[in-house]
Structure formats: C-alpha cells, structure tokens
Specification:
The complex is a heterodimer of chains A (115) and B (113).
Chain A: E1 5-7, E2 10-13, E3 19-24, E4 29-37, E5 44-50, E6 53-57, E7 65-68, E8 75-79, E9 88-96, E10 105-106, E11 110-114
Parallel strand pairs in A: 2-11
Antiparallel strand pairs in A: 1-3, 3-8, 4-5, 4-9, 5-6, 7-8, 9-10, 9-11
Chain B: E1 4-7, E2 10-14, E3 19-25, E4 32-38, E5 45-51, E6 56-59, E7 62-67, E8 72-77, E9 86-93, E10 101-103, E11 107-112
Parallel strand pairs in B: 2-11
Antiparallel strand pairs in B: 1-3, 3-8, 4-5, 4-9, 6-7, 7-8, 9-10, 9-11
Chain lengths: 115, 113
C-alpha cells in the first residue's frame, strides 16, 4: 500500500499523559498536513510542512501540541498533558510537489480517546 | 479570519433525484475549491475540484460551480444512487500565501432506495 499511513490507529490515554502520532506520507509528496476531526465536524487545520519546514500552524493550536518532520519524510504530532477535549480523530494528509494547492491524500487517521 | 460555511448539514433524497450542497468562503484570495467524500469510518477522498479561473466543472454525475464574486460554490449530484450516501465536505484554499485547506462542517447525504 503506497498511501498515507498513520500509527497508531487508536490510542486511549489518561488525562495528563503525553501521546505521539506518526504519519508516513506518500513518498514523492513534499507537503504534509495535520488535521483534527471531531464527530459531525469537518477536518480542522492544525499545521502543515513543506519538506522539513513547518510553514503554518493554526492560531487555535495550544502550545501543548507540537509537530515535527525532521528529514522531510515522516512526521510526528505530539500532544503533551492531554485533556479530555483533545479526544478526536487526528488526520494526516500529503500532497504532491507544486506551487499551487492540490489534492490532499488522507490517511486513515489516529483516533485519540482521553479518559 | 478564514471560514467556510456549508449547507445543509443533512440532506435526504430519493434515489434518482438530484442533490445540491452549497458553500461560502470568506477569504477572497482563495483560489482552489475541492470537494471530499467521507464514508463512515473511512478517510476523506477527493471527488472533484475547481480552480478560480473556471466557473464550472463536470465529471459524469457530479458537477461543481463557482461564483467568485459572491464567494460561493456548489456541488451538484445528479441521478443519485444509494452508494452516494456519505458525508461531503467542501474546502477552500487558505489564500495565495498558504497551502492549507479550510473545510466546511460537512453535509450528510442519505439516498433512499
């Protein structure tokens, strides 16, 4: 399968714990995005990378959230001191090289439940 | 700030009827407008998109129209089939200096056989 892959698919944690999600984009894609989706809502933009550079981060994103893409390939999203409100599906997406915004290819998502 | 509003939130049609979903966006610099379909428990997948230099685009039973002056765009599905039942999201690019997409809240389409 050469699509976007995310790990883990499901994570249950207790409030206050740290969690980390990993995303492996389609290999030739240089842009990588993180979105958060709650039930009945559209994907909410969190941050995106072009190669290893984090170009934009949502103003709504708490300082407890941090994302990296150290070598311009896979990316990690870490949430520190989780809260119940962090419970959501975390979607990763990638898109091909190009000047214009283009099709995003989404992964299956990592579902986080904070107890 | 950037915002995309989508209506209706739910839509129920009989098989064979047409369905129309409408979106408005706030950022006049947005120039790319995709539509995604998300089936239950699955990832969102692109079904059609349009760029700002085009007013309409069609692909078999689905079409998208764009009115840049009014800052709204619509998805039209004709001859609906039960397998069209899903959640549909519109999105708009975040402007000329960003590669992000801002998504609408989604429309749950139910096609009754």
């Amino acid at each position: 399968d050469t699509g976007v892959s995310q790990d883990p698919r499901h994570k249950i944690t207790k409030r206050g714990q740290n969690v980390t999600f990993r995303c492996d984009p389609i290999s030739e894609h240089n842009r990588l995005y993180w979105y958060r989706q709650t039930l009945g809502q559209g994907p909410e933009f969190l941050t995106y990378f072009q190669n290893e550079a984090q170009l934009e981060k949502s103003r709504l994103l708490s300082d407890r959230f941090s994302a990296e893409r150290p070598k311009g390939s896979f990316s990690t999203l870490e949430i520190q001191r989780t809260e119940q409100g962090d419970s959501a599906m975390y979607l990763c997406a990638s898109s091909a090289r190009g000047a214009n915004t283009g099709e995003l290819f989404f992964g299956e998502g990592s579902r986080l439940t904070v107890l | 700030g950037e915002n995309v509003e989508q209506h209706p939130s739910t839509l129920s049609v009989q098989e064979g009827d047409s369905a129309v979903i409408k979106c408005t966006y706030s950022d006049s610099a947005s120039n790319y407008f995709p539509w995604y379909k998300q089936e239950l428990g699955k990832r969102p997948q692109l079904i059609i998109d349009i760029r700002s230099n085009v007013g309409e685009k069609k692909d078999q039973r689905i079409a998208v129209t764009l009115n840049k002056t009014a800052k709204h765009f619509s998805l039209h599905i004709t001859e609906t089939q039960p397998e069209d039942s899903a959640v549909y999201f519109c999105a708009a690019s975040g402007g000329s200096n960003t590669g992000k997409l801002i998504f609408g809240q989604g429309t749950t389409l139910q096609v009754k056989p």
